[in-house]
């Protein structure tokens, strides 16, 4: 009888697990559907136009003339001479972006992968990122997604990559690292790594997995809280609240925010985060205002602080680098009118005060720059990046939130002394051309 009861209980648990899995899949599908509907409602879908190349180019030209932030200042070539939609999109971009030339932010992405990240909070890849854009050896794993194949295989931040699929590090360092962007789930790569001088070989199979947008938090010596935010996606918001409430409850009065590898995401999530940092006293005040081009000033809108329980953090130190981009820079800029002190430590950020109101057409999402985001003081002049208060080079090793990790240690030193720590190495200015696999540089008006 006891055995029968166990079988019944076990079967019930299995049914519950199956139901939970079904609900989770339904929720992900629903999120994707809602995102697609919202994208179409923002002016996408090509207004019902045909999806042949000529029609797509005609629609794109009309859209860019109407909604592109630099409309009237950017080129407007005839579409006939372009054999690919991506080539024509590139030809329509503004060509006088400070320090760069052709505006580097606008991009096209397939709808499935766009919704996978922004709606579902998921990825399909190997789950590791490297310090490839620095262009120097050793080639290291700088970040591992906690639920990814790389994490399951035991790979760690700081592991040295000697070869990928037999291609040596000395050759890889000058590549675009496309090898880390699989075309489909199940695709495999083999890494030869070294950890503490011991060689290992690891084979990874690409898979879809849930992102972990808030991977680490801690309360550090000196009443200092630490929080790492990897992605500004809606799935981060409840976790941000929970972790910041815990940090405040533990007595932290200052906060270190780690955005060194955060390429951005949703402005609403950045606004939620800022509201938690500045506390209830700033409720109702402007966090950021989005300014569209002259033809669409009626679309200008502001995000306001929602208020949060508990006091504001007195001092905020933000860890940055060139991979700190878009909505991450918005957080830095948006906090400055309110926090007692906002300090940045690390490297110069990417330089993107611009964002998107994405539109969908023919299975593609077009993220063309639509607006410039300014803070409550009307400031957003950081097209060449936000320079750090203290320049400190990331060494791509050590655990996030460990007081001994290079950038975290520098932040703690600054909070203790109000002076920049002496550093032997300064951050290297990274190559701006393109993004590494796994980087998502965006700021969306949702």
What do these coordinates show?
This protein has 446 residues and is of the alpha+beta class. Helices cover 28% and strands 23% of the residues. The chain has ten helices and 23 strands. The protein has helices at residues 2-41, 53-67, 85-91, 111-118, 149-152, 169-172, 237-249, 267-278, 327-335, 406-417, and strands spanning 107-110, 122-125, 128-130, 141-144, 160-164, 167-168, 188-195, 198-205, 207-210, 216-220, 224-228, 254-258, 264-266, 286-292, 301-304, 315-320, 341-346, 354-356, 359-361, 364-367, 369-374, 390-391, 442-444. The strands form seven sheets. The protein has a six-stranded mixed sheet with strand order 10-11-12-16-17-22, sandwiched between helices. A four-stranded antiparallel sheet has the order 6-5-7-8. Strands 15-14-21-18 form a four-stranded antiparallel sheet. Strand 19 (359-361) and strand 20 form a beta hairpin. The termini are far apart.
Short key terms for the protein model shown above:
single chain, 446 residues, alpha+beta, four-stranded antiparallel sheet, 23 strands, disordered N terminus
Brief description of this entry?
With 446 residues, the protein is an alpha+beta fold. 28% of the residues lie in helices and 23% in strands.
């Amino acid at each position: 009888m006891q055995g029968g009861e166990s079988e019944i209980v076990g079967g019930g648990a299995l049914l519950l697990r199956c139901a939970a899995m079904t609900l989770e899949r339904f929720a992900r599908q629903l999120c994707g559907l809602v995102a697609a509907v919202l994208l179409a409602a923002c002016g996408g879908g090509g207004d019902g136009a045909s999806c042949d190349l000529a029609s797509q180019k005609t629609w794109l030209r009309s859209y860019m003339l109407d909604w592109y932030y630099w409309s009237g200042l950017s080129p407007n070539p005839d579409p006939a001479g372009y054999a690919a939609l991506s080539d024509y999109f590139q030809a329509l971009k503004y060509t006088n972006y400070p320090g760069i030339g052709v505006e580097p932010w606008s991009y096209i992405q397939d709808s499935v992968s766009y919704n996978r990240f922004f709606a579902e909070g998921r990825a399909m890849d190997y789950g590791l990122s490297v310090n490839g854009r620095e262009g120097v050896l050793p080639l290291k794993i700088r970040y591992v997604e906690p639920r990814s194949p790389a994490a399951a295989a035991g790979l760690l931040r700081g592991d040295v990559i000697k070869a990928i699929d037999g291609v040596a590090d000395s050759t890889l360092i000058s590549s675009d690292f496309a090898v880390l962007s699989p075309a489909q789930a199940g695709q495999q790569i083999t890494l030869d790594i070294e950890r503490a001088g011991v060689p290992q070989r690891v084979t990874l199979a690409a898979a879809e997995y849930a992102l972990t947008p808030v991977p680490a938090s801690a309360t550090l010596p000196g009443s200092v809280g630490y929080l790492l935010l990897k992605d500004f996606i809606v799935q981060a918001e409840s976790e941000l609240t929970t972790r910041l409430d815990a940090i405040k409850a533990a007595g932290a009065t200052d906060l270190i925010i780690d955005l060194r590898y955060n390429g951005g995401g949703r402005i609403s999530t950045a606004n939620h985060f800022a509201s938690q940092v500045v506390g209830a006293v700033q409720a109702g005040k402007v966090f950021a205002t989005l300014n569209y081009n002259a033809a669409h000033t009626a679309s200008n809108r502001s995000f306001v602080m929602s208020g949060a329980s508990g006091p504001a953090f007195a001092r905020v130190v933000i860890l940055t680098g060139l991979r700190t981009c878009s909505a991450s820079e918005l957080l830095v800029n948006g906090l400055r009118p309110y926090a007692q002190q906002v300090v940045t430590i690390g490297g110069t950020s990417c330089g993107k005060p611009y964002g998107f109101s994405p539109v969908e057409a023919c299975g593609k999402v077009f993220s063309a720059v639509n607006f410039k985001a300014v803070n409550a003081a009307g400031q957003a002049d950081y097209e060449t990046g936000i320079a750090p208060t203290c320049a400190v080079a990331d060494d791509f090793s050590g655990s996030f939130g460990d007081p001994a990790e290079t950038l975290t240690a520098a932040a703690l030193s600054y909070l203790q002394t109000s002076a920049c720590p002496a550093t032997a190495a300064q951050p290297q200015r990274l190559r701006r051309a393109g993004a590494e696999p796994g980087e998502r540089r965006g700021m969306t008006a949702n």
